[in-house]
Amino acid sequence: MKPKLSIVLSNYNEHANLERGVLEQMATYLRQAKFTWEVIINDDGSTDGGDKLIADFAKKHPGFSLIHGNHGGKAVGIWNAIQVASGEIVLYTDMDQSTPLNEIEKLLPWFDKGFDVVFGSRGKMRKNFPFSRQLASWAFRSIRGFMLLHNVVDTQCGFKAMKLAVAKNIFPSLSVITKKATTKGWTVSAFDVELLFLAEKFGYKLKEVDVTWKDEDTSSSKQRGFISESIDMLMQIIQVKINDLTSKYDQK
Description:
Number of domains: 1
Order of helices and strands: EHHEHEHEHEHEHHHEH
Oligomer: single chain
Number of strands: 7
Distance between the termini: 34 Å
Helix content: 40-55%
Structural class: alpha/beta
CATH superfamily: Spore Coat Polysaccharide Biosynthesis Protein SpsA, Chain A
CATH class: Alpha Beta
């Protein structure tokens, strides 16, 4: 029988987060969940041995599985997992579990009300964010909201659910997927903006839902230069706007 929910994650050098027990945290919640589920983790070419921790965990915990992909970044890793998912609904979430998995209970009811994409929102204030990152986040939201997705508060929360058929229709149109670009190290991407924009453009019904979020990331491999991150993400947003104006997203 197909599960109700497929939970997909992309792992790249998350050894520190894995060691503090994020998978067990997820499993503890799922053991008492009132829906059927599967967890698919794509290892995105990790170099820190985290994939071995996941493999060992999956052997002891039915419902958890590990697949391997070439290092292509978060969106590519999520897409790899989506392609082998079988649930009615797919949720992608971050390995650090800054939004705990039990927050899915806030999202699932909206699918019964006719929504196709239901995504978590951290609101405008982010716990554990220093003022500099709060400021950068505000600037990003303001510029992005002027150009795209005017009614969305938070595009970047890594806790998004959608019908599996919807995910399989949208992801192949994402720029990071179509370009098949290689990447080095951990990179920041605005693919969430493009994903939500395409969902809206393709006529799907979107719902933003406030979720609990607190920065729990203990990984030391991720770059934290928020100024360069913000500039890079801004350029990606501009490219999404250009793609739309030049009809690159028009479905045949």
